[in-house]
């Protein structure tokens, strides 16, 4: 085993034989040092007698740099431990005695590594960089104080603060700079270091400080990042314990409050904390969006809106449910345009005014229904069912749908390609084996209104009716059996993986779900076009034998829209199409025909 003289001489020889200006020599020296320092015996050297300060810094920095490579994984610990044992301390002065605090130290570099990839804690570096009256900063404004807060070194944070360190530690440009450095309070909070968060707040850290160029405070940042709400819970817990005042409705440069952001990101926990701590439920951003507008624009809307109303009801906090944004949109208009029938119910239940409600335009629907879903197989039927269910909910609550409203819905069906075409029709698609097998498993369970004498038989049919049975029924039969709510349930139950027939039967289901709506409006329009010269029964038979796209053209003609184009498109395929389909429908279960034959 080498003695202290031999170790010292070997270390000096290694340094003397290395040309420091040649990078390859430097790396060779670094690699050769490790076996020696691992087995060092005797008196420890003063490394400044062998290496220049810059050379020691380079050795440390390179060790940190290579810690994620397997061949160097063990290098980091021996070198740092050896330096600490030798009593090596960083000296911030240059050769002229001037302080140099603006430099990236190995401590900065080590703090950027994943802690699990480093053999020794970053804490060990503070035994080398132990001047807490000074604060080294890298080129971004990230300081040793930031490092201590990031890793939760409460004793080191305490030492910095005792020696006059500003707990906010803003970068040189202040809160309006373009620095990417997080504040000490943010680092401690997102590291879940409760003692450090408390210490910073107790020593003057400002929780309302603008810490981002976009005007965000810490609470804004928490509500954009905290998907598990732990940081938000910790923050409010400490704020409450310390009775620290907090601007809970602070606005960023776009007028967003923390509540806007928490709801926009769908963070339920953070949203609940904000509401229970008094966040304003009616505050608007630069677009005029209230928190309720934000909720109504999300995909996972129901859970958030129920929570929102529940807390506001508990706190007796009024909600401006008919508030308009800059473009005059209300939350209820968003609910209808986004095809969300359950949300329509919730908004009306909480006071949305139907007497002043304006039905969304085609442009509104275009903005709210995702382009990727409008024409994609597997989404069309669900969207069509939701659209008609939303309209039905409005009408049930007292809204009087007019022809323009109905035409808007019909135009959506046309432009989103939700119409069944004759090209789709295949007399034998019902018997496609994968479809038949899966469709038989899907039970409909419709609500059937029958007399008492028929109740028992109807209940039996209700339990046995499958999707396979349903698609073989005539339109009027299906109307009597299945509601929009039933169709919504069906849409969620269907497996759309069967490539050969899925587009065909999805288009057929779109036709079925909308048949009653189109027929209702087309019959009145057809009577109007004939100047009421034909008997209603006659008109009803004609309308019954047309496909939905034809019925849309009739409504357009009656409304005076594109009459020339419509007259050119008067179809002849519709009657043939449904005549063929009716023949096929006769193969549906006999019991259904007997009970519901129209």
UniProtKB/TrEMBL annotation:
Keywords: ANK repeat, Repeat. InterPro entries: Ank_repeat_dom-contain_49 (IPR051637), Ankyrin_rpt (IPR002110), Ankyrin_rpt-contain_sf (IPR036770). Gene3D superfamilies: Ankyrin repeat-containing domain. ANK repeats lie at residues 140-172, 183-212, 254-286, 327-355. The keyword Ribonucleoprotein does not apply. Pfam families: Ank_2 (PF12796). It comes from the Eukaryota. The keyword Repeat applies. This is Uncharacterized protein. It comes from Trichogramma kaykai. The lineage of its organism: Eukaryota, Metazoa, Ecdysozoa, Arthropoda, Hexapoda.
């Amino acid at each position: 085993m080498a003695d202290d003289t031999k170790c010292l001489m070997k270390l000096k020889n290694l340094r003397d034989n290395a040309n420091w200006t040649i990078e390859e020599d430097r790396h060779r020296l670094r690699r050769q040092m490790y076996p020696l320092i691992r087995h060092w015996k005797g008196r420890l050297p003063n490394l400044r007698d062998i290496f220049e300060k810059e050379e020691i810094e380079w050795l440390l920095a390179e060790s940190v740099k290579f810690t994620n490579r397997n061949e160097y994984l063990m290098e980091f610990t021996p070198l740092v431990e050896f330096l600490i044992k030798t009593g090596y301390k960083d000296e911030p002065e240059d050769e002229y005695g001037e302080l140099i605090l603006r430099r990236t130290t190995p401590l900065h570099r080590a703090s950027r590594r994943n802690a699990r990839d480093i053999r020794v804690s970053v804490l060990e570096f503070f035994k080398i960089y132990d001047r807490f009256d000074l604060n080294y900063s890298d080129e971004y404004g990230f300081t040793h104080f930031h490092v201590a807060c990031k890793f939760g070194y409460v004793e080191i944070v305490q030492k910095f603060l005792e020696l006059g360190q500003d707990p906010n530690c803003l970068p040189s440009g202040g809160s309006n700079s373009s620095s990417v450095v997080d504040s000490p309070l943010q680092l401690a909070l997102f590291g879940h270091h409760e003692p450090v968060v408390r210490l910073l707040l107790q020593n003057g850290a400002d929780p309302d400080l603008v810490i981002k160029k976009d005007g965000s405070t810490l609470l804004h940042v928490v509500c954009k990042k905290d998907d598990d709400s732990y940081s938000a819970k910790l923050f409010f817990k400490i704020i409450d314990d310390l009775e620290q005042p907090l601007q809970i409705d602070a606005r960023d440069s776009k007028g967003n409050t923390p509540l806007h952001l928490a709801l926009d990101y769908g963070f339920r926990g953070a949203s609940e904390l904000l509401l229970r701590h008094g966040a304003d439920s009616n505050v608007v951003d630069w677009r005029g969006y209230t928190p309720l507008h934000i909720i109504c624009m999300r995909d996972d809307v129901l859970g958030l809106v129920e929570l929102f109303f529940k807390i506001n009801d508990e706190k007796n906090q009024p909600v401006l449910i008919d508030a308009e944004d800059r473009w005059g949109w209300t939350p209820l208009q968003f609910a209808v345009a986004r095809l969300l029938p359950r949300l329509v119910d919730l908004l009306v239940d909480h006071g949305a005014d139907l007497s002043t409600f304006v039905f969304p335009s085609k442009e509104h629907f275009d903005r709210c229904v995702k382009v990727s879903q409008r024409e994609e197989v597997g989404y069309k039927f669900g969207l069509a069912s939701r659209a008609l269910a939303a309209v039905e909910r409005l009408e049930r609550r007292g809204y009087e749908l007019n022809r323009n409203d109905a035409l808007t819905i019909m135009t959506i069906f046309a432009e989103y390609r939700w119409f069944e075409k004759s090209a789709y029709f295949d007399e034998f698609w019902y018997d496609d084996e994968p479809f038949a097998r899966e469709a038989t498993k899907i039970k409909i369970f419709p609500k059937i209104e029958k007399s008492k004498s028929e109740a028992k038989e109807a209940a039996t049919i209700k339990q046995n009716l499958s999707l396979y049975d349903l698609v073989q029924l005539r339109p009027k039969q299906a109307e009597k059996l299945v509601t929009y709510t039933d169709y919504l349930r069906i849409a969620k139950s269907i497996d759309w993986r069967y490539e050969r027939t899925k587009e065909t039967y999805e288009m057929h289901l779109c036709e079925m779900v909308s048949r009653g709506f189109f027929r209702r409006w087309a019959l009145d329009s057809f009577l109007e076009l004939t100047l009421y010269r034909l008997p209603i029964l006659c008109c009803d038979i004609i309308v019954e034998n047309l496909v939905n796209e034809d019925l849309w053209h009739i409504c357009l003609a009656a409304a005076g829209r594109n009459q020339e184009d419509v007259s050119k498109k008067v179809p002849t395929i519709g009657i043939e199409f449904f005549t063929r389909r009716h023949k096929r429908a006769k193969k549906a279960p006999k019991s259904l025909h007997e009970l519901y034959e129209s």
